[in-house]
Design brief:
Layout lengths: L4 E3 L7 H6 L1 H10 L11 H11 L3 E4 L1 H14 L4 E5 L6 H10 L2 E4 L2 H8 L8 E3 L6 H9 L4 E4 L2 H10 L4 E5 L22 H10 L3 E6 L9 H20 L6 E3 L18 H17 L3 E4 L3 H4 L3 E13 L2 E6 L9 H5 L6 E2 L6 E7 L8 E9 L6 E5 L19 E4 L1
Parallel strand pairs: 1-17, 2-17, 3-4, 3-10, 4-5, 5-6, 6-7, 7-8, 8-9, 9-10, 12-14
Antiparallel strand pairs: 2-11, 11-12, 11-16, 13-16, 14-15
Helix pairs in contact: 2-4, 10-11
Amino acid sequence: MMGEMHILHTNSITAELLLEGVGDFRAMERRARVLEKTIPVSEELVVNLVKRYGTPLFLILGERIARNYAAFQEFFPGVEIFYAVKANPHPLILEMLARWGSSFDVASAQEIALILEHGVAAERMIFANTIKKKEALQYAREKHIRLLTYDNEAELYKIRTFYPEADLVLRLKVPTLGSRIDLSYKFGVEPEEAMYLLRLAKSLGLRTVGLSFHVGSPCHNPDNYRRSLEMVKVILNDSAREGISLSLVDIGGGFPLHTYYAEGEEASVEYMGETVYPLLKPFMARGYRVIAEPGRGIVGNACLLVTRVIGKAVHSGRVWYYLDDGLYGTFSAIPFDKASFTFHTLHNGEEKIPCVLAGPTCDSLDVIAEGVFLPSLEIDDLILVPNIGAYSLASATNFNGFEKPRVLVV
């Protein structure tokens, strides 16, 4: 059955062992840094998996998720990780993270239920959607999910009606310069209006415990954090003067795809740790609880798509390859996350020609990429796509009757 889940024990070092010692995995990661930009599994493994399971295949690299999670702990010590479930909610990923002690950023009653299935305690979740259905608020109250985010008046009145004892976090609109996805376009109160909402919450008998923001995703510009934290500092001081006691700072997600410095990369989680963490230390020294909501930074580079050429044609002088996955499947990251990918084949040393890659559906919009340089391919040749873990499988559909990829952990 397509979509069936499998765990394949193909690695010599397990995720659990990697998490036992940060120093060991970091040394290994530095030696293997080139793998961040190439195919992280062997050709032999890919061929054997395709023979056994067919295509498309979505491979979850368990060791890499472990390295990313442990690296975040190293570069942001003392900052609590609330994994953004929306990035990739596959149960095998959630199972690993829950076992390692991660907390979770959830956005709906359905995501709350999904995390509860993995035995995660209610205090390890933040309901970080600023707009919540009343039924979702009632469900959160029933399941004792206390941390809720808001950014507007209407939400406060709704919370007062359906979950007045919750602990609230006010989300701010902040700079997102250079980030591909602007998460302050749809969410966040203007900083100059923050005190009004804090006062309103207090007058309604509601308890705000902290402030949150999101600098966009992926963010390669640490100045976004600097400016955001300056705003946070002002609001924390103003609220304290009015007797509104805040104790939490949520710096959101949007961390870069790669964990370590890599040639040609604009930024990495390591770089953001070196530049952003010092900005957080004064808050932590004053006793503030600091949390973050990484999603892309945990799973983005930890998944590999294996797709197959199912058709070939020449239109207007251009070679077209039709694949068994497309924009309505895993490549949904292209329209929804504004992502771009690299494409690799098992052909080595052959002359590359420009081509168009298209998905399998009957929608003419289902074009994955144009002007891609690849060797001449034939029906059943494989194309491998790394760094496709975030906002891809999560938004895949079965449009036109095409099944989502089978998921394997390797």
